[in-house]
Q: What sequence folds into this?
């Protein structure tokens, strides 16, 4: 491990400007690390639909991160990853909606930017450890391998978006907040006078601050979504939709279709530019297939596993059987029907508190 001139190990702290990453920086210092704070510059105002000349929320976050880093006496840097973010996160986000899927860009940002490019930069700068403000835990097993576990604070657990971490990445990553509750993190920030001690948690996708995903897709691609037909599950035409990028599986609001019973989006037929509507009970299924799977242990299971799984970020885990059908593909069979299994979302597998891995729902 690289060490500072005074013998302390060196760590890079990914600082978003929020309270969690700020407290992570403080805790890493307390653990004896020589720390540097860094923030990734990911997009320009126009990418987020914010007019040029206005103060974008991302700029405020940079200033908050800088102030905390300086208060802690650590050097602070901003790295420009705009091109990589556009290619690996925003472009993937837009392409997923165009093919009728519903993506999770935060997962891609973790996978390709934070624990990809940034971790590589950390190693190049002599930092053996990258620390973040995620609520999750990393433990080393007796055989030397690493395992990812849920956070102690289950209401803030972020293990779902970390399921693509590898053994090599886990070996060089620290999550200082994994054993804390959010209230404890805020108390630490308040006790040390951090400017962001009471800052609200971000709820939106950073480059879609107004929550209008369809407008973001059109802004990113320069292409307008073509209207098409609403049809029921038997193919009967019900009306005209605004373009498939406006819809996701399970959606009820904004359909503009009068019916005797509530209708929901049950399917998106991209080749025919049709959105399939149906009753709520038509949204339930017990099966899914997933690809692009990562097994955190590094080993693909040789036999079916009885585990629990989440098919979206805040969903309670559901009992299921996972069968590997290839090196990075699986079939999942749930014990009870699940509502609105959605193409493009992540399915993440758990054994108690341990994250086994995950894949992208096909």
A:
């Amino acid at each position: 491990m690289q060490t500072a001139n005074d013998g302390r190990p060196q760590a890079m702290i990914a600082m978003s400007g929020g309270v969690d990453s700020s407290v992570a920086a403080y805790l890493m210092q307390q653990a004896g690390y020589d720390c540097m704070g860094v923030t990734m510059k990911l997009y320009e105002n126009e990418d987020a639909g914010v007019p040029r000349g206005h103060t974008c929320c991302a700029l405020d976050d940079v200033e908050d991160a800088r102030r905390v880093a300086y208060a802690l006496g650590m050097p602070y840097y901003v790295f420009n990853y705009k091109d990589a973010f556009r290619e690996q996160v925003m472009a993937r986000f837009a392409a997923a909606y165009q093919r009728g899927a519903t993506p999770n860009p935060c997962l891609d940002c973790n996978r390709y930017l934070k624990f990809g490019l940034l971790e590589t930069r950390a190693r190049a700068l002599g930092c053996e450890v990258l620390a973040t403000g995620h609520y999750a835990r990393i433990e080393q097993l007796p055989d030397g391998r690493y395992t990812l576990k849920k956070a102690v604070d289950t209401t803030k657990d972020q293990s779902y978006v970390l399921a693509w971490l590898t053994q090599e990445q886990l070996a060089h990553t620290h999550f200082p907040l994994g054993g804390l509750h959010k209230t404890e993190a805020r108390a630490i920030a308040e006790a040390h006078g951090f400017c962001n001690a009471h800052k609200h948690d971000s709820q939106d996708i950073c480059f879609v601050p107004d929550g209008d995903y369809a407008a973001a897709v059109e802004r990113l691609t320069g292409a307008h979504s073509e209207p098409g037909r609403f049809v029921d599950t038997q193919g009967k035409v019900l009306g005209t939709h605004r373009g498939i990028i406006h819809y996701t599986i399970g959606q009820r609001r904004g359909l503009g279709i009068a019916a005797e019973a509530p209708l929901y989006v049950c399917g998106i037929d991209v080749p025919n530019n049709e959105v399939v509507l149906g009753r709520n009970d038509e949204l339930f299924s017990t099966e899914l297939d997933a690809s692009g799977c990562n097994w955190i242990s590094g080993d693909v299971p040789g036999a079916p596993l009885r585990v629990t799984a989440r098919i979206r970020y805040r969903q309670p885990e559901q009992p299921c059987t996972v069968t590997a059908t290839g090196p990075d593909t699986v079939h999942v069979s749930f014990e009870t029907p699940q509502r609105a299994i959605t193409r493009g979302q992540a399915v993440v597998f758990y054994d108690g508190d341990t994250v086994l891995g995950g894949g992208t729902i096909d």
In short: The radius of gyration is 22 Å.
